[in-house]
Amino acid sequence: MKYASIDIGTNTLRLLVADGLADGNIRPLAYRRAITRLGGRYSEGCIDKYAAERTFNAILEFKKVMDEYRVEKTIAVATSVVRRAKNKDWFVSEVTKRTGIGVSVISGDEEGRLSLLGVMTVVGGEKDRLIMDIGGGSTEFILARGAVISGIWSMEMGVVHLAENFLKSDPPADCEIERMDREIRAVIRNLKKTMKGSGIAVEEYSERNGAEIVGTAGTITTLAAMDQDITEYDRGRINNYILSIDRMRAIWNNLVRLTLKERERILTLEKGREDLIIPGSLIALAAMDSFGFSSMRVSDAGLLEGVILNELRLT
């Protein structure tokens, strides 16, 4: 049976078409993504009508791919920006009216659980891990041993809102970067405090104790592509790539000095992510510093794969 999963994110809209296999695994057939920035110009807690229009049109383009592959079941999920929006009911009903696709608005915890299912298709094994999913409207942190979850925390710290709230100069002024960095590190301090309050021995999830950090979603995969000088995106070269904190800092130090136009000319930097790579990199660096990791394993797989795998388990 052919499945399609759609991830309606704050910045990026993504599609996966895959065969569901008898053993409960999946075989990917097609992958598409479009940066629609649904969470852009997020005014008074509402999704902007122009951003919504871009997203509706992109879903219609996805439908053409799904029709080409004769998809039999589609599961579409919406994350941070939709779950917080005052006009989310309008948005969800409009997607269905225009495309015929129903949308489930999932919680941060559910997003983390499904993302881990997808990540495990890449990393495998029983190692202790901190999985970090940096999104446009929120960032999910999952502590797990293999596929067994110790805790999931969804933090309202996303790259779209950070960029719009802090980055006013071009290139960014030092004071803007410092303010944004303070905000990010305060969120991570609160995260660790909450983890400890839940009875989690946070220090066990560190490189020193044999754990690893795994990064998924656009910021991390873009950094991995930039580090390898990949101009045509190749998921095979991204999955399980080890990205060192020193290389991440070097990429960051270069990017933050450039204007938006200069970043647009970098072929390895995904189009539409030229401003978002700044807060995204800061989140990754701050998390690695705080939890004690010198390198990060990269997973291109995550929520999209997890959505289909979860459906296979339910059928």
Return the CATH architecture of the largest domain.
2-Layer Sandwich
Helix percent reads 40-55%
Total domain units: 2
Strand content: 15-25%
Put the structure in a nutshell.
The protein is built from twelve helices and eleven strands. It has 315 residues and is α/β, with parallel strands linked by helices.
What does this 3D model show about the protein?
The longest helix has 24 residues, at 174-197. With 315 residues, the protein is α/β, with parallel strands linked by helices. It has 2 domains: 2-106, ATPase, nucleotide binding domain (Nucleotidyltransferase, domain 5, 2-Layer Sandwich), CATH 3.30.420.40; 124-303, Nucleotidyltransferase, domain 5 (2-Layer Sandwich). A hairpin with a 5-residue loop joins strand 2 and strand 3. The protein is globular and about 50 Å long. A 6-stranded mixed β-sheet has the order 8-7-6-9-11-10, with helices on both faces. The protein has a 5-stranded mixed β-sheet with strand order 3-2-1-4-5, with helices on both faces. The chain has helices spanning 49-68, 80-84, 88-99, 108-123, 159-166, 174-197, 218-227, 235-238, 245-255, 260-264, 277-291, 303-314; strands at 2-8, 12-20, 26-35, 73-78, 103-105, 128-134, 139-145, 148-155, 212-216, 242-244, 295-299. Helix 7 packs across helix 11 (277-291). The protein has 12 helices and 11 strands.
